[in-house]
Design goal:
Chain A: It comes from Prauserella salsuginis. The complex is a heterodimer of chains A (300) and B (71). Chain A is an all-alpha fold and 300 residues long. Helices cover 72% and strands 0% of the residues of chain A. Chain A starts with a helix and ends in a 6-residue tail after the last helix. The chains are: A mainly alpha (300), B mainly alpha (71).
Chain lengths: 300, 71
C-alpha cells in the first residue's frame, strides 16, 4: 500500500511540476528576463548600491561584484569559494562562476535555462515534494484525520502549501536575479531554510497538540488550538529573526512585485495540482482496501 | 410532518497504514527527496557538491521562481 501511495504521490508531483513549470514559463519568465536585462545593463551599479560590505573591486564587468567576498564566506573552503576568490579579471573570463553568467558565454544559455532548465528544476522539486507528501498523507490518514482520503489530501495540500511555501515566503520572499548581494548568499540561505525547518517542525507539533485537544474538546477546538499554536510561534519567530532587504536602489518596484507574484503563483499551481491529482489517486488506492466501512456517504 | 431520515451508518474505518510499513519508505523517500531538493534549491549557491556551477545554472530559473535564495 505504501509503495502504491508513494508512486502515486510522485506521479501527482510530476503532473504538478509540469503544470507549474508551464505557469512559470508563461508568467514568471518575462520578469526574470527583465531582471537579468537590468542586471546586465547597469547591474554593477545596482549591486554596488546595495552592497554594504565593501564590494570594493572595480566593478568593470557584471561578473565582478558577485565575487566580492564577505568575511564569512572567505573561510568556507569549498570549491565554489575558491572560484569566488579569484581575481575579478580572471573570473570575468572564466565561465565557471555559478549563476552569475546569464549571457551567451554562460555554461548554460538563457534559452536552456528558461525552458528545459526551468522544467527540470520545477519538476524535480515537485516530484520530491510529491513523494514526501505521500508519506505525510500515509502518516496523517487514520491518525490525525478520519475523513475520506480525498478530503484529507486536500486539507494536507492546503496546509503543506501554507507551511512549506507561504509562511517562509512572507518572511523571506523570492528575489529575482539582480536582487540580493552575492556575499550574503550563505546567510540568506541559512535564514530561509532555518525558517522553513522551523515552520515544518512547528506545524508537526501544532498538529499533535491539536489532535490531542480534539480528543477531549472536539475537532473544532483542536483545529483552532493547532492553528493558534502554529501562528503564534511563527509570528514570534518572524518578528525576532533578521529581515533580508537587499533590493538595489533603482530596481523597479513593479518588476519585483510581478516576479514575486509569479513565484508565489508557480507554487500555488504546483500545490493545487499536487493536491487535486493525489486526492484522486489516493482515493482510488485506499478505496480498494477499505470498501466495507468507509465508502459510506449519506445523501438525502 | 417532519420526516426523519435516520440512517444507520457503519462507523467509517479510515484506512490506517501501520507505521511499521511507513517508516522504511519514509526514510528512503526523505533521503532521495532531500538530495533532489539540494540540487534544485541550493547546489552551488551556499553549498557546493559538484561545484562547477553547471547544475546551478541549469536549474537557475526554477530556483528563483520556486522562491529559493539563488545568488
Amino acid at each position: 500500500m505504501m509503495k502504491t501511495l508513494l508512486v502515486r504521490g510522485m506521479l501527482a508531483g510530476l503532473v504538478a511540476g509540469v503544470l507549474a513549470a508551464g505557469f512559470a514559463y508563461l508568467v514568471g519568465e518575462p520578469s526574470v528576463g527583465d531582471a537579468i536585462a537590468l542586471e546586465e545593463s547597469h547591474g554593477t551599479q545596482a549591486h554596488d548600491a546595495a552592497s554594504h560590505d565593501a564590494a570594493s573591486h572595480d566593478a568593470a564587468s557584471h561578473d565582478a561584484p558577485p565575487h566580492a567576498e564577505s568575511p564569512g564566506r572567505a573561510g568556507s573552503g569549498d570549491a565554489a569559494a575558491h572560484e569566488h576568490s579569484e581575481s575579478p579579471d580572471h573570473a570575468a573570463e572564466s565561465d565557471a562562476a555559478p549563476g552569475h553568467n546569464h549571457g551567451d558565454d554562460a555554461l548554460v544559455g538563457r534559452g536552456v535555462q528558461s525552458t528545459l532548465g526551468l522544467l527540470t528544476g520545477v519538476t524535480g522539486y515537485a516530484v520530491a515534494v510529491g513523494g514526501l507528501f505521500a508519506i505525510a498523507f500515509a502518516v496523517v490518514q487514520g491518525r490525525v484525520t478520519t475523513l475520506r482520503p480525498r478530503v484529507s489530501v486536500a486539507l494536507l495540500a492546503a496546509g503543506g502549501f501554507a507551511v512549506a511555501v507561504l509562511v517562509p515566503f512572507l518572511k523571506y520572499p523570492a528575489n529575482p536575479p539582480a536582487v540580493g548581494q552575492a556575499g550574503t548568499i550563505e546567510d540568506r540561505t541559512a535564514l530561509y531554510f532555518g525558517f522553513l525547518a522551523l515552520s515544518v517542525v512547528t506545524a508537526m507539533v501544532a498538529v499533535a497538540v491539536g489532535r490531542a485537544a480534539a480528543d477531549r474538546a472536539g475537532a473544532a477546538s483542536g483545529g483552532l488550538l493547532g492553528v493558534g499554536v502554529y501562528v503564534t510561534v511563527m509570528a514570534v519567530a518572524g518578528a525576532l529573526l533578521p529581515a533580508v532587504d537587499e533590493v538595489p536602489d533603482g530596481f523597479p518596484g513593479s518588476l519585483l512585485w510581478d516576479f514575486r507574484l509569479a513565484s508565489l503563483g508557480t507554487q500555488v499551481v504546483l500545490w493545487c495540482a499536487l493536491g487535486l491529482v493525489f486526492a484522486m489517486l489516493a482515493e482510488k488506492a485506499l478505496g480498494r482496501g477499505s470498501r466495507d466501512g468507509h465508502a459510506v456517504t449519506v445523501r438525502q | 410532518m417532519s420526516q426523519t431520515n435516520v440512517v444507520s451508518v457503519p462507523r467509517p474505518t479510515a484506512v490506517r497504514i501501520p507505521l511499521r510499513e511507513i517508516v522504511p519508505w519514509a526514510v528512503f523517500t526523505t533521503v532521495l527527496a532531500l538530495l533532489v531538493l539540494l540540487f534544485v534549491t541550493t547546489e552551488a549557491g551556499a553549498v557546493s557538491l559538484v561545484s562547477d556551477g553547471l547544475v546551478h545554472e541549469f536549474v537557475h530559473d526554477g530556483r528563483h521562481l520556486l522562491a529559493f535564495p539563488c545568488h
